[in-house]
Amino acid sequence: MNEHIERITEIQDRIIYLENNDNTDDYNDFLDESCSEIVIGNLRYAPSEVLKSVDPTAYRCGINDYNDDELNELNDELRSLEWA
């Protein structure tokens, strides 16, 4: 039961964090892990850096979508825990 309450508290804390902050570091990690490095000549760039520089609007939309997906997953898990 104690673990159950701890998990609910962790989820609530994460939801509060995501609602008040962007999740830029996690989003950058996600992009960089799921996309190949960008190579131009002998230079290599992280996909997150390229997207942010080339299309800042798409980059911000991506962060928002990433946060929304995480918030939805957390809220679903929270609801299931609260009813258990």
Average pLDDT, to the nearest integer?
93
Assign the structural class, choosing from mainly alpha, mainly beta, alpha/beta, alpha+beta, or little secondary structure. mainly alpha
- Distance N terminus to C terminus? 10 Å
Describe the main β-sheet briefly: 2 strands, antiparallel
Instruction: Give the strand tally.
Output: 2
> Which strand order does the major sheet show?
1-2
SSE pattern, N- to C-terminal? HHEEHH
Structural Rg: 17 Å
Total number of domains: 1
Query: Count of DSSP helices?
Result: 4
Helix % is: over 70%
Can you summarize this structure?
The chain has helices at 2-20, 24-34, 47-54, 56-82; strands spanning 38-40, 43-45. By secondary structure, the protein is mainly alpha-helical.
Give a verbal description of the structure.
- Helices cover 77% and strands 7% of the residues.
- The protein has 84 residues and is mainly α.
- The protein has one domain (2-82).
- The chain has a two-stranded antiparallel sheet.
- Helix 1 (2-20) packs antiparallel against helix 4 (56-82) and helix 3 packs across helix 4 (56-82).
- The chain is elongated, with a radius of gyration of 17 Å.
